[in-house]
From TrEMBL:
Gene3D superfamilies: Nucleoside phosphorylase/phosphoribosyltransferase catalytic domain, Pyrimidine nucleoside phosphorylase-like, C-terminal domain, Transferase, Pyrimidine Nucleoside Phosphorylase, Chain C. SMART domains: PYNP_C. This is Pyrimidine-nucleoside phosphorylase. It catalyses: uridine + phosphate = alpha-D-ribose 1-phosphate + uracil; thymidine + phosphate = 2-deoxy-alpha-D-ribose 1-phosphate + thymine; 2'-deoxyuridine + phosphate = 2-deoxy-alpha-D-ribose 1-phosphate + uracil. Catalyzes phosphorolysis of the pyrimidine nucleosides uridine, thymidine and 2'-deoxyuridine with the formation of the corresponding pyrimidine base and ribose-1-phosphate. Residues 345-418 form the Pyrimidine nucleoside phosphorylase C-terminal domain. It comes from the Bacteria. It holds the Pfam family Glycos_trans_3N. Residues 282-309 form a coiled coil. The keyword Ubl conjugation does not apply. Keywords: Coiled coil, Glycosyltransferase, Transferase. GO terms for molecular function: pyrimidine-nucleoside phosphorylase activity. Belongs to the thymidine/pyrimidine-nucleoside phosphorylase family.
Length: 433
């Protein structure tokens, strides 16, 4: 087989075989095929797309390029949830204990990463003592006995994706549906998921800016999952404004606690139910999505979800008393209000820019070396569609520095007020096949 022939075949719009795709992926991972040939191949995929079969082959070839996590010692169907990323997305913190309370095994591997706030691991570490450095045996025991545990990222998973993603980044080939879909799905499958629930975001704070693109990506991923034997469903959700009210690490833990008590922000609760019901259904713990949703509401109301969160924290060394006393979470030194300068209705809260404002306070990492301040962040006092009076607070800044003029300026630039505005639709679509 010669790489040049494979490039020409794809350039001419023909379907590549399983062997040809594997030749590209393994050859590139092992350093046998140079960047310039894989660049040309990626560009031909960008223009000519891939069939469903090619997408499934590409995904599995990337899974097989490195180590995979074996979760077979965990009983039940392991359902993993993946979000394409947003601002103030507190869903994982809520969903892990929520679905575990219905005996859905949650065996989560979680990293730190760069972003407006930390990742799930950073957020959870705002609970004193909580840690994700578990031995694999301990991790498996915790999931079997308590249905939920989080372990730090380890192992050389999907090296082909790492290399290809870096190459795509500098060859203008990131924005290709088959390449994005196979990239995301390969990572979930390598991490041991039997079934996958996807939250594909759309809007200013999202990777996919329009609902149409988000829908296409969701269909592509659901189809890959189902073609490689992992039942997959997706929700397409709004990320034009941040999710919930809290953006920050400890602030989001507090928001998750409220949501598990049934007292959280309505949009966060709605999205958690939309994703949670798919997880419960795919795990085989309900006969229909409707029944799954009823069960989720029940464990919120009867306190079992909250109880599960306490055990989860304590199992991994965390001080579970924060659940009843959220003031024991890290607190910022200064609380500063950002008042509205006119009457009207909030018409826009630009998600990614507001996320950047939180990052300026130290809530997230700009580089791998940056330190996160777990206490700082933003609390939105208004969401899009809410009425507001001049002087009323739009946002409360939680800061550990006194001068936050840069943060205030960023917030004011990115929250607009108009004579009339409606709340955006949160769940745009549900993709189940
Ligand atoms: N996120 C990924 O993990 N992969 C892509 O290709 C794009 C976004
Ligand atoms: Ca939030």
């Amino acid at each position: 087989m010669r790489m040049v022939d494979i490039i020409a075949k794809k350039r001419d719009g023909k379907e590549l075989t399983t062997e040809e795709i594997d030749f590209v992926v393994q050859g590139y991972t092992q350093g046998e095929i140079p960047d310039y040939q894989v660049s040309a191949w990626a560009m031909s995929v960008f223009f000519n797309d891939m069939t469903d079969k090619e997408r499934a082959d590409l995904t599995m070839s990337m899974v097989n390029s490195g180590e995979t996590i074996d979760l077979s010692a965990i009983e039940g169907i392991k359902v993993d949830k993946h979000s394409t990323g947003g601002v103030g997305d507190t869903t994982t913190l809520v969903l892990a204990p929520l679905v575990a309370a219905l005996d859905v095994p949650v065996a989560k591997m979680s990293g730190r990463g760069l972003g407006h706030t930390g990742g799930t691991t950073d957020k959870l570490e705002s609970v004193a003592g909580f840690h994700v450095e578990l031995e694999k045996e301990e991790f498996i025991r915790l999931v079997n006995e308590h249905k939920v545990a989080v372990i730090g990222q380890s192992g050389n998973l999907t090296p082909a994706d790492k290399k290809l993603y870096a190459l795509r980044d500098v060859t203008a080939t990131v924005n290709s549906i088959p390449l994005i879909a196979s990239s995301i799905m390969s990572k979930k499958i390598a991490a041991g998921a039997d079934a996958i629930v996807l939250d594909v975001k759309t809007g200013a704070g999202a990777f996919m800016k329009t609902a149409e693109d988000a829908k296409e990506l969701a269909h592509a991923m659901v189809s890959i999952g189902n073609n490689v034997g992992r039942k997959t469903m997706a929700v397409i959700s709004d990320m034009s404004q941040p999710l919930g009210l809290a953006i920050g690490n400890a602030l989001e833990v507090k928001e998750a606690i409220l949501t598990l008590q049934g007292k959280g922000p309505k949009d966060l609760e709605e999205l958690c139910l939309a994703l949670g019901r798919q997880m419960v259904f795919l795990a085989g713990k309900a006969d229909s999505l409707e029944q799954a949703e009823e069960k989720l509401k029940e464990v919120i109301q009867n306190g079992k979800a909250l109880e599960k969160f306490k055990h989860f924290l304590a199992n991994q060394g965390g001080d579970a008393s924060v659940v009843d006393h959220p003031d024991r979470l890290p607190q910022a030194q200064y609380l500063i209000e950002v008042p509205a300068d006119q009457d009207g209705f909030v018409s826009g809260i630009v998600a990614d820019e507001i996320g950047t404002a939180a990052m300026l306070l130290g809530a997230g990492r700009a580089t791998k070396e940056s330190e996160i301040d777990l206490a700082v962040g933003l609390m939105l006092n208004k969401k899009v569609g809410d009425p507001v009076k001049v002087g009323e607070s739009l946002v409360t800044i939680h800061a550990n520095r006194e001068d936050v003029a840069d943060v205030i300026a960023k917030i004011k630039e990115n929250i607009t007020i108009a004579d009339k505005a409606d709340a955006p639709v949160l769940v745009h679509d549900i993709v189940t096949e």
